[in-house]
Amino acid sequence: MDMGIAGRTALVCAASKGLGRGCAQALAAEGVNLTIVARTAETLEATAAEIRRQSGVEVKTVACDITTPAGRAAALAACPQPDILVNNAGGPPPGDFRNFTHEDWIRALESNMLTPIELIRATIDSMSARGYGRIVNITSSAVKAPIDVLGLSNGARSGLTGFVAGLARKVAPTGVTINNLLPGLFDTDRIAVTFEAQAKAQNISVDDARKQRMKTIPAGRFGNRDEFGRACAFLCSVHAGYITGQNWLIDGGAYPGTF
Fold this sequence. Notes:
This protein is an alpha/beta fold. Helices cover 47% and strands 14% of the residues. Strands 3-2-1-4-5-6-7 form a 7-stranded parallel beta sheet, with helices on both faces. Helix 6 packs across helix 7. The chain is globular.
């Protein structure tokens, strides 16, 4: 399927590895020129070089912390008017909410709620003026089914989800869509942190923690970044203009509910 987005521009956050990289690669495969952002310059440049080699599109890099005002300013200076915005940032650490400080909550909100909102605010009006825009927020399956050790993530990402629900309907007539992708268990660095916390809480090995969680997934495996990226590319395509304000759960069937 031709996604109809060749020649468009995209700003993809936290794109040097994991799910962000999967989204960047999938968009590049459709001919989208990229500005990719991550904290570690060496890893970011290696990813950019690989994407250029695979796709031939233009790939700009901005090594920065997107959760800071300076980082966002640098990213937007490199890509001030993207057609596509993929919001993504590493999740806050797991733990018992009794041990979270006020500062822990503020950091979680800055990373997983306020940073996406700031980037949306900076780009959405120009998208609306051009009559085309796609915003995809990578959140978490914890928005649908909270994970007890990820209280910081549960709260911050749910706040972003509520904000998007209202804004998406407001801008829909202008040709701009805003949707959220809710990953379940994907084989990324982030999953390792989650399993370490689970193993510690249950006094079991990390390998046993992985096996336990895999048994809860009807698909019988963890997801991979390539399939996640392709879902993102579809939401960014011309074919997804009638999809907005939605939360796409991509979890191999792990969520047991009907709705």
